[in-house]
Amino acid sequence: MLRPTGLIAATFTPMHDDGRLWLERIGDVVDHLVDRGIDGLYVCGSTGEGPLLSGAERRAVAEAYVRAARGRLPVIVQVGHTSLVEASELAAHAQAVGADAISATPPTYFKPAGLDGVVDAMAIVAAGAPELPFFYYHIPSMTGVPVDVSALMPRAAERVPTLAGVKFSAPTTHEFATLDLERFQVLFGADEMLLAGILAGAHGAVGSTYNLIPAPYRAAMAALEQGDLVAARAHQRLATRIVMRLVRDRPIPFLKAAMALTGLGVGPTRAPLTAPTAAEFAALREDLDAAGYLSAFRADAVGA
Predict the structure, then answer these.
(1) pTM of the predicted protein model
(2) What's the pLDDT tens digit per position in 60-90?
(3) 109 is a catalytic site residue
(4) What pLDDT is recorded for position 146?
(5) What are the domain boundaries of the chain?
(6) Fewer beta carbons under 10 A from the terminal one: N or C of the chain?
(7) Is-catalytic flag, 137?
(8) SS in 3 state form for the chain?
């Protein structure tokens, strides 16, 4: 079973200015991430505007990323949906096109009731792709489903044979720190707290800013492996400061726009999200430049 580690980019969905998918750009995006040493792709999540795409669009994006990856790095497709039927069908499609794993949020309009309701939902979704590892996507700030993951995972394992782990996008690292980390894989989803997640036991990390500034994160992880906590903190501090500026206003639109700073623009966000105006983007660039942070976006960046 796939056990992803390292930095996994929560990929953007490239779009034209009129909101149409820019599928042709996905090959360039994957090459860009491979060149920067990214360890995996997480497709159609929050960063990829998955909830704003139609089912047909999500299938097209998933297939394009799998095709572009060409086995060079694993692809995890996020298939969560308000309709469990559609989520299960998206899961089946991900398996059919060659994805390496699936992940899913719980339904977010009519929400599942308690742990058992979440387990029931997970079982339906995962059954659509019985050959793929399944990662529960825990992001209560967006879903409104604040389930206790440390209680959920052991119970879910009884019903979901493909359950591999959890994408944990919350600051409450103590919730997963008590899990059996030999049994369940934890992919930490708070870039600005990467070191905290790793120290709590996370095996890997999924994040938006790994598309943009992977170097300081890699440097932080390398320093930690070498036992140099002071250096690790310094690299994390740099990354966190950049993240705080990027998400200060409208997080996903500004993060997506910031891809242009790497030399590879991926277009605007889709309504109801609103992309930065030219003036807002200029102010972002000016702030990053004044702080000495623009160099972190270059392909040859080496950390702090």
Answers:
(1) 0.96
(2) 999 999 999 999 999 999 999 999 999 999 9
(3) no
(4) 93
(5) 6-214
(6) N
(7) yes
(8) CCCCCEEEEECCCCECCCCCECHHHHHHHHHHHHHCCCCEEEECCCCCCHHHCCHHHHHHHHHHHHHHHCCCCCEEEECCCCCHHHHHHHHHHHHHHCCCEEEECCCCCCCCCHHHHHHHHHHHHHHCCCCCCEEEEECHHHHCCCCCHHHHHHHHHCCCCCEEEEEECCCCCHHHHCCCCCCCEEEECCHHHHHHHHHCCCCEEEECCCCCCHHHHHHHHHHHHCCCHHHHHHHHHHHHHHHHHHCCCCHHHHHHHHHHHHCCCCCCCCCCCCCCCHHHHHHHHHHHHHCCCHHHHCCCCCCC
